[in-house]
């Protein structure tokens, strides 16, 4: 039996700094737009869209938005607008086939050797293009009912050698809860790698605190942390520091972005993103074509333009700075290169 090297403590009596900031996230569009000197009516803010998928954005992310700019690429990612409520052919609630790939409560397996564990439904930020905006977290959240069924399903399949912690955002869980999960996973001998998909180090870099680093540093597996930034302006000094601390415990840092109309659909924007992420120690990994989930059609960039953007990026940057352009389709054995 492998024992955790992470110092186990009870839940702290006072919330950590990142948890305090989490609770202070903006949830009202009027407050958000007033902070940016913008008019909600002129931007087509939709209460119906908010009722379907709430607004949530941390103060620190708002601080990186440009005041007075209705087209700010960070604002566009989080602002609920009328376009979300327009029907669009070919868009559905489960565009990537999560339901069909369910292996157990909170476990999704689409590709050989890998299993995705839905650790929580919580996120620090609600991105309007989210492919799981309609996901039934109440039924598929492994944390809600404990880890046993999810861990047993992974343990029963010796072909699974990589576990991906996802959500929601797994780092929205308290560190002692994450340690409980990885303590259970330690008992599975065929796990060889751990991957964490998270947006928190970008949108709430204070999450990368000493307790989190101690837990990550105690893990027995090679560790990949895949962060999610779509625009160079999402990086600032606080994000750089968070990335440096994660690299310091030996994590391999990768970035996956989504190609979004009005956010990063130019060669220059993609070049800036690759160069800025690499400057922070994060290697460009994937550029995803939009998952066609209901409510996100206004973000879509067609494949012809997407391929032209990658061709332009390839002509400007070294190969290691060019992310793979991919699409996820239900039933495919891997992400589909475009």
Q: Could you give the topology of this structure?
A:
Blueprint: H1 17-23, H2 29-35, H3 47-52, H4 59-62, H5 73-78, E1 102-104, E2 107-108, E3 114-118, H6 137-140, H7 148-155, E4 162-166, H8 175-185, E5 193-197, H9 200-203, H10 210-218, E6 223-227, H11 237-248, E7 252-258, H12 267-279, E8 283-288, H13 303-316, E9 324-327, E10 336-337
Parallel strand pairs: 3-4, 4-5, 5-6, 6-7, 7-8, 8-9
Antiparallel strand pairs: 1-2, 2-3, 9-10
Helix fraction by DSSP (H/I, runs of at least 4): 25-40%
Q: In one word, what is the shape?
A: globular
Using the CA coordinates, give the radius of gyration: 19 Å
* Relative strand content: 5-15%
Structural class designation: alpha/beta
Number of strands: 10
What does this structure look like?
By secondary structure, the chain is α/β, with parallel strands linked by helices. It folds into 2 domains: 19-85, no CATH class; 87-337, TIM Barrel. The chain contains 13 helices and 10 strands. Strands 1-2-3-4-5-6-7-8-9-10 form a 10-stranded mixed β-sheet. Helix 12 packs across helix 13. It is globular and about 55 Å long. The protein starts with 16 loop residues before the first helix and ends with a strand.
